[in-house]
């Protein structure tokens, strides 16, 4: 029965966020299509695309975790036959799935776009690292939202993760093994790129694991 | 199988400005307990601990034979919990909530849910954000009652309801009480509601259980006596007297263990008992809490 309940709670979240998921996919795909129409359009669409992913991540965590707690809908969910740990598992899975669905689709569409159009394939490495960085930021915000009932802490994490996107651009710019290949006709994957991707995945794993360790202790979700 | 629906033993929980202190209470299966206390007494904290939502710092909690919080998922299969601050998802319909709950609980009774929809005059297609406070409370009760849980835990369910909605909710609960196997823990600061449906009453104040007994014992034991005395000193010290207030030569004595013998005790001291008044549950509650506070301050 417990697996069934977790599954139902996950489906509940996906149902409640369905319009947000559809909107994120629609705006993301539109941005990618617009990017094909010219160099200026490519830059503008890039900003739109980035904004869509960042805004979607923030809205998903705010509506899916913070607002659920603030509106006291969490009391209703916690009255279901779930332990606190099972609730956390369901919530992480649901919100992650709601983010990964558009993220995977848009990342795959972006890579396909670079490979299938005259846009230099050298952009693919940067695009994959940037997309994974945004996924990592989403995991960090989700983790903090599950760990604390403080809206200040969640808001601060959102601000810091958004600022870190600029730092990510500076980091990439300082790495010739990545930034030097942007205009190349073929994609090049360097050791630096592997290190950055590995670090991003490690941070994601830690961010998503911490709430479960804390959840086993005396942590209160309400 | 345990005969206790709820058993809390020495449960403590400390917050920055409040402490639930070694709280113990038991609710037998098939019984209805009213948990009465002023705002901030610890009613909701107690209930959230027994629901596994807040871990206790110390003590033992068992609900329907399951240890809480470790077995809360098992226990909550048979618990229906409604709280005055619990909210359904505002952008989903009541029908969606009914399907959601029905998909989780095999015990969901479609016919009873339909009956409750009509009785509460609720529209299943309506979005939750369009429901009034009374309708929202009735929707929560519907979602809980149609599952036919063995234990109902209701945390101030009638708070903020207009008299008609309150009547409808209480009437439905009275119907539910026909089932002898169902236990109910009902918290409120509205003693009229509690008096109407409870078998047992537990008074709680500032994190302590003040007194816990069956309702009839409370109503039979507590009395207010109007006594004529020369001076207050004429009144003998009686252990069951919890409060004495004087106005001139008249004294009002409140006792928590009234017996006719009490008349003779006062009369032997030269006082005349003019009148013995029964007390309402609200009066008993206030007198009990005030007496408990005085004792703790000494």
CATH class of the largest domain in chain B: Alpha Beta
Total number of helices of chain A: 9
* CATH level-four homologous superfamily name of the largest domain in chain B: P-loop containing nucleotide triphosphate hydrolases
> Tell me about the biggest sheet of chain B?
6 strands, mixed
CATH topology of the largest domain in chain B: Rossmann fold
In total, the number of strands of chain A is 0
Largest sheet of chain A: none
Report the count of strand segments of chain B: 14
Helical percentage of chain B = 25-40%
Number of DSSP helical runs of chain B: 10
Overall structural domain count of chain B: 2
Protein structure class of chain A = mainly alpha
Portion in strands of chain A: under 5%
Largest interface: A-B, 25 and 30 residues
Integer average pLDDT of chain B: 90
- Count up the domains of chain A: 1
Q: What is the CA–CA distance across the termini of chain A?
A: 24 Å
Identify the overall geometry of chain A: elongated
Order of helices and strands of chain B: EEEHEEHEHHHEHEHEEHEEEHEH
The secondary-structure element order of chain A is HHHHHHHHH
């Amino acid at each position: 029965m417990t697996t069934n309940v977790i599954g139902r709670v996950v489906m509940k979240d996906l149902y409640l966020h369905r319009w947000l998921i559809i909107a994120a996919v629609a705006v993301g795909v539109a941005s990618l299509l617009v990017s094909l129409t010219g160099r200026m359009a490519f830059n503008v669409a890039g900003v739109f695309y980035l904004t869509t992913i960042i805004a979607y991540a923030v809205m998903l965590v705010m509506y899916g975790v913070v607002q659920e707690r603030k509106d006291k809908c969490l009391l209703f969910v916690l009255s279901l036959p779930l332990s606190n740990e099972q609730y956390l598992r369901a919530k992480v899975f649901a919100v992650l799935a709601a983010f990964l669905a558009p993220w995977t689709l848009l990342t795959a569409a972006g890579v396909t776009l670079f490979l299938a159009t005259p846009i230099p394939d050298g952009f693919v490495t940067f695009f994959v690292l940037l997309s994974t960085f945004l996924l990592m930021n989403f995991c960090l915000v989700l983790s903090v939202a599950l760990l604390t009932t403080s809206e200040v802490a969640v808001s601060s994490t959102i601000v810091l993760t958004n600022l870190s996107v600029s730092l990510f651009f500076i980091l990439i710019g300082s790495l010739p093994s990545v930034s030097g290949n942007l205009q190349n006709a073929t994609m090049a994957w360097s050791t630096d790129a592997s290190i950055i991707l590995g670090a991003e995945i490690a941070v994601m794993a830690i961010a998503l694991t911490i709430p479960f360790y804390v959840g086993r202790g005396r942590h209160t979700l309400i | 199988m345990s005969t206790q629906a709820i058993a809390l033993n020495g449960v403590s929980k400390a917050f920055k400005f409040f402490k639930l202190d070694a709280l113990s209470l038991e609710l037998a299966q098939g019984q209805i307990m009213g948990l009465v206390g002023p705002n901030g007494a610890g009613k909701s904290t107690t209930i959230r601990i027994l629901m596994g939502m807040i871990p206790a710092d110390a003590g033992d909690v068992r609900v329907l034979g399951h240890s809480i919080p470790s077995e809360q998922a098992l226990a909550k299969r048979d618990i229906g919990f409604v709280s005055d601050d619990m909210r359904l998802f505002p952008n989903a319909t009541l029908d969606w909530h009914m399907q959601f709950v029905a998909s989780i609980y095999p015990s969901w009774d479609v016919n009873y849910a339909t009956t409750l929809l009509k009785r509460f005059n609720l529209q299943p297609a309506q979005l939750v954000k369009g429901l009034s406070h009374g309708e929202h409370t009735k929707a929560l009760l519907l979602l809980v009652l149609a599952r036919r849980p063995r234990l109902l835990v209701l945390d101030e369910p009638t708070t903020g309801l207009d008299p008609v909605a309150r009547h409808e909710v209480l009437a439905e609960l009275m119907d539910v009480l026909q089932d002898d196997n169902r236990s109910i823990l009902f918290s409120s600061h509205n003693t009229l509601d509690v008096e109407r449906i409870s078998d047992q009453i537990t008074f709680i104040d500032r994190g302590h259980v003040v007194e816990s007994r069956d309702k009839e014992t409370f109503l039979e034991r507590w009395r207010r006596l109007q006594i004529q005395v020369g001076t207050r000193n004429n009144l003998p010290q009686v252990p069951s007297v919890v409060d004495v207030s004087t106005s001139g030569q008249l004294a009002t004595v409140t006792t928590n263990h009234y017996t006719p013998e009490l008349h003779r005790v006062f009369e032997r001291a030269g006082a005349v008992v003019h009148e013995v008044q029964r007390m309402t549950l609200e009066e008993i509650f206030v007198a009990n809490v005030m007496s408990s506070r005085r004792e703790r301050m000494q």
